[in-house]
Design brief:
D-Maltodextrin-Binding Protein, domain 2; 9 helices; 313 residues; alpha/beta
């Protein structure tokens, strides 16, 4: 009888230990999966909250589509751009919706085919589209100094041994789209400036999005990468350093086709330019917008992008 009780007691302890071990394993797995989910840039289900998202007055308004180049993964674009469009929907006679594109050139095609009324392009792509299709810029963004300029940055990991651009020889270089200013800046301008040829680099690879470039460098798959400066704020404590910046370049424009809807575009301009005149409430309006937009807008002209033309003439 004693032996049976002892046996059952030992079995009870084993069962308890097994349950504890399984519970610990389950908690660990759930924690890991949750971390992967919130850090995976491929996720597309994002529902940004802002004070303009649920304005019932926009339901019956005419829908206007705005295009954007695919510089970021879709969920990041939606997270930063849709709140801006919700603001426009609340402040104009139209309801604005995003139309994403598969690549940089698709955004231009959608504009020319009148699938979108306006589009956010990169400065390099705008210059090409202007020459080919006569596309016009209407607005460009401001930086934290309220100036219409931005920069791109050549990045490496701390401790990589790469301290200047000439150290890239025999290294692997990650770049965003071939249609981005970032990629063309280093390949067409900086390489020429420092006497570097593309064949001097061990591997040059283009990735769909700037975040892909950053992650490739962080993971050590590539020795260096070129990205938009503003994105680095989110990675400043992750072991990245900048070894070279571009000169200040005109910020990317919001553009229209040659024959555009003047009434709609005027309402867009009025609503976005008004933000720049309201410094005291600007932060509240733009807090959920993409970092590129939070300081407001200024009118843009084609001549603003002559620098881009000179660089790649």
């Amino acid at each position: 009888m004693i032996s049976l009780i002892t046996y059952l007691s030992r079995m009870n302890r084993k069962v308890k230990l097994l349950i504890f071990a399984l519970s610990t394993l389950l908690i660990t797995v759930i924690t890991v999966l949750f971390y992967i989910r919130i850090t995976d840039i491929s996720l597309t289900e994002i529902n940004p909250q802002n004070e303009y998202s649920y304005n019932s007055e926009t339901k019956n308004k005419k829908i206007v589509y705005i295009g954007v180049i695919s510089r970021y993964p879709p969920h990041i674009i939606y997270q930063g751009y849709q709140p801006l469009l919700d603001y426009l929907s609340a402040c104009t006679n139209y309801k604005f919706e995003l139309k994403l594109s598969d690549d940089y050139n698709s955004a231009v095609t959608n504009l020319i085919n009148k699938e979108v009324t306006a589009a956010f392009l990169g400065s390099y792509l705008y210059v090409k589209a202007n020459k080919q299709y006569g596309i016009k810029p209407i607005l460009k963004t401001l930086n934290e100094k309220l100036e219409p300029y931005s920069r791109v940055a050549l990045i490496v990991k701390y401790g990589s041994g790469i301290n200047k651009i000439t150290d890239l020889k025999n290294k692997k270089l990650a770049l965003p789209s071939k249609e981005s200013f970032s990629a063309n800046w280093i390949l067409k301008k900086e390489f020429k400036k420092y006497g570097i040829k593309e064949q001097d680099i061990k591997l040059i690879q283009h990735f769909p999005h700037h975040q892909n470039v950053i992650n490739q460098v962080l993971k050590g798959n590539f020795d260096a990468g070129v990205v938009r400066e503003q994105l680095l704020e989110d990675y400043k404590n992750n072991g990245l350093k900048v070894i070279e910046y571009s000169e200040p370049i005109p910020t990317p424009p919001l553009v229209v086709a040659p024959q555009y809807d003047k009434e709609v575009i005027q309402e867009i301009k009025n609503a976005l330019l008004e933000i720049s005149q309201k410094d005291k409430i600007k932060e509240g309006i733009t807090r959920n917008w993409d970092k590129e937009f939070i300081y407001g807008f200024i009118e843009a002209n084609d001549s603003d992008y002559n620098y881009i033309r000179q660089v790649y003439k």
